[in-house]
Automatic annotation (TrEMBL):
Transmembrane segments: 28-45, 51-71, 108-130, 136-157, 169-187, 207-231, 252-271, 283-304, 343-365, 371-397, 417-435, 441-460
Stated name of the protein: D-serine/D-alanine/glycine transporter
Swiss-Prot/TrEMBL keywords: Amino-acid transport, Cell membrane, Membrane, Transmembrane, Transmembrane helix, Transport
InterPro entries, sorted: AA-permease/SLC12A_dom (IPR004841), Amino_acid_permease_CS (IPR004840)
Record's keyword annotation contains S-adenosyl-L-methionine: no
Listed PROSITE patterns: AMINO_ACID_PERMEASE_1 (PS00218)
Gene name linked to the record: cycA
Main location group: membrane
Subcellular location(s) per record: Cell inner membrane
GO BP term, pick one: transmembrane transport
Topology relative to the membrane: Multi-pass membrane protein
Domain Amino acid permease/ SLC12A: 27-462
């Protein structure tokens, strides 16, 4: 049974202002489930299906398997010390202050880049109804709305996210059920295509694009999982983390099977993979192809709210990350100031200004899918860095605190071994990104971020020393 008691986390900076996160458990449960359904699934699955064919299902399962162990490592770390509230907390404690600085700022940048990808996706979905609307103007309006929503109160954010998540969950379950009915009834679309599970292996087999096509599917598929770590950090803020956190993490495999595997199997059974359009959402196109335009409008609304949900979470997260960094002296002090509504307004405005880069990109590069691929690649690389820091922190924790590990009520299975396997997998994905031209550019540009961070950290350390 869901406990609807209030969860309030007060953080007091030097100014004695309080950051109040009045989110009920009802909000947290739905936000954690909704976090498993990313924009990459709705927007990027068209491209991943066209790249890999039915083998994309295996891609999602492999990534989900690896990230489950990353979340288990995070779960054990968070429960080993209930004072830990974020990655930067245990990274700074276990690895060193530099790790906390790099992790905090990289996680902030992760969500800014993800927010840009979400804004790009939202403008693409808006084209479905308003083909004449300028994409960069649509992105500006979207960012302004996100800023206004988050400047009000945290309760508005919680309630908005609750209903956004509910819409996504109901929509995907409905899509799976409707698709299964079509398959059983052998529904025939106006184009003459008959819905059948045989589409998964009849059009070139499970690997129609070969092993290279299979590998090519990993980039946007990885992006579909970004934000999965919010499940742990949100659950850790509840009054009973020993119960809530393991329950949230243990549900990840079931969510991956339900939201990714079943949904994509249904899509490719109703619409053969070689009929899926790469630069459009297959969730929308499925209903267009079977002659149900009204349903397509509904699904387009669903995927638009999904992208808006992710962008909303990103804006919320970045402002709180900046607030925490400012408290630690790792960001300008102004980010620790709160508005009369107990909202870190300066951080919000700064993050939204950074999101405007998405509008600039759309203006400079009118090809939405090209922009989406660029920003999702950067986001995927940075999130893999954060996930790797979690694994490195776990390895240090195992070495420095063997007694804590022995007492843990939520031990990571095959802890040390799976840490190395997961990090080797992330390195493998980086190699794959280097092999494709459309992702190589982002891979080459990403190290600039770490160079800027390194220089900033040295300057900050010298300033503190004096």
């Amino acid at each position: 049974m869901v406990d609807h008691s209030e969860i309030t986390t007060d953080v007091t900076p030097a100014s004695k202002e309080h950051l109040r996160r009045n989110l009920t458990n009802r909000h947290i449960q739905l936000i954690s489930i909704g976090g498993a359904i990313g924009t990459g699934l709705f927007m990027g699955s068209g491209k991943t299906i066209s790249l890999a064919g039915p083998s994309i299902i295996i891609v999602y399962m492999i990534i989900g398997f690896m990230l489950f162990f990353v979340m288990r490592a995070m779960g054990e770390l968070l429960l080993s010390n209930l004072e830990y509230k974020s990655f930067s907390d245990f990274a700074a404690d276990l690895i060193g202050p530099w790790a906390g600085f790099f992790t905090g700022w990289t996680y902030w940048f992760c969500w800014v880049v993800t927010g840009i990808a979400d804004v790009v996706a939202i403008t693409a979905y808006a084209q479905f109804w308003f083909p004449e609307l300028s994409q960069w103007i649509a992105s500006l309006l979207c960012i302004l709305l996100l800023l206004v929503l988050n400047l009000v109160t945290v309760k508005v954010f919680g309630e908005t996210e609750f209903w956004f998540a509910m819409i996504k969950i109901v929509a995907i379950i409905s899509l799976i059920v409707i698709g299964l009915v079509m398959i059983v009834m052998q529904f025939q679309s106006p184009s003459g295509t008959v819905a059948s599970l045989s589409h998964l292996w009849n059009n070139g087999g499970l690997f129609p694009k070969g092993i290279s096509g299979f590998f090519a599917g990993f980039q946007i598929a990885v992006f579909a999982f970004v934000g999965i770590e919010l499940v742990g950090t949100t659950a850790a803020e509840t009054k009973d983390p020993e119960k809530v956190l393991p329950r949230a993490i243990n549900a990840i495999p079931l969510r991956i099977i339900m939201f990714y595997v079943f949904a994509l199997m249904v899509i490719m059974s109703v619409t053969p993979w070689n009929s899926v359009v790469a630069d459009k959402s297959p969730f929308v196109e499925l209903f267009v192809l079977i002659g149900l335009p009204a349903a397509a409008s509904i699904i387009n609304f669903v995927v638009l709210t999904s992208a808006a949900s992710s962008a909303n979470s990103g804006v919320f997260s970045t402002s709180r990350i900046l607030f925490g960094l400012a408290q630690e002296g790792d960001a300008p002090k102004s980010f620790a100031n709160l508005s009369k509504r107990a909202v870190p307004a300066n951080g919000l405005i700064f993050s939204c200004l950074c999101l405007l880069c998405g509008s600039v990109l759309i203006f400079l590069i009118p090809n939405v899918m090209m922009v989406f691929t660029l920003v999702t690649t950067v986001s995927a690389i940075l999130f893999m860095f954060v996930w790797s820091i979690i694994l490195c922190s776990y390895l240090v924790y195992r070495k420095q605190h063997p007694a804590l590990h022995q007492k843990s009520i939520y031990k990571m299975p095959a802890g040390r071994l799976m840490c190395w396997i997961c990090m080797a997998f992330f390195a493998f994905v980086l190699v794959l990104l280097a092999l494709r031209e459309d992702t190589r550019q982002a891979l080459i540009a990403t190290p600039l971020w770490f160079m800027v961070l390194g220089l900033s950290y040295m300057l900050l350390r010298n300033k503190k020393a004096t």
